[in-house]
Design a protein that fits this description.
alpha+beta, eleven-stranded antiparallel sheet, globular
Length: 172
């Protein structure tokens, strides 16, 4: 069982950390995430993306020529964030940051399971099939010709901000 620890510098030490099951639900239900990768020269690169929280890890995909893919070739360490605290007010909701290393998924069974998870979450907006070691987009916006590489981020640390708890950290 993963238990959060409230950082007394940034929150009410008498508050109760949110249960890990609640945080997993936030990660599962989010529709949009932001990923931060590190460029070859050390500068950060942040972009929005869709993804799925599946079997205790975050999964996303990217084209082999995209900037985030080029960044991952040099440095696999990333941060993925989601939440609406900033948009909805300081004391409402939670923002979640997942830190870890992105590892490419190439196993056919794992890719099929992730494609099914994407479809269950996003429907025809993000429908994928598997070709070799990559996704092929079958959604309304994809023509099925270009491939996308799939990555999985097993969390090393998850930080949650918001509500009465302030900042809670979960380590793995």
């Amino acid at each position: 069982m993963t238990t959060g620890v409230i950082d007394p510098r940034y929150g009410d030490v008498s508050a109760t950390p949110p249960p890990w099951s609640d945080i997993q639900r936030l990660l599962t239900d989010a529709q949009l995430y932001w990923i931060v990768t590190v460029r070859r020269d050390g500068r950060p690169h942040a972009v929005p993306l869709v993804g799925v929280w599946h079997e205790g890890a975050f999964a996303f995909c990217t084209g082999p020529g995209e900037q985030k893919q080029r960044n991952l070739e040099v440095n696999p360490h990333v941060a993925v964030a989601t939440g609406g605290t900033g948009a909805n007010g300081w004391n409402v909701g939670k923002d979640v940051v997942v830190e870890g290393a992105a590892v490419r998924v190439t196993d056919a069974d794992a890719l099929h399971a992730l494609a099914a998870a994407w479809f269950a979450k996003y429907g025809n907006d993000w429908k994928y099939d598997v070709r070799g070691h990559e996704f092929i987009e079958l959604s309304n916006s994809g023509d099925g010709t270009g491939g996308a590489w799939v990555y999985r981020i097993a969390p090393a640390k998850v930080i949650v901000f918001g509500d009465a708890h302030g900042q809670t950290t979960y380590r793995f």
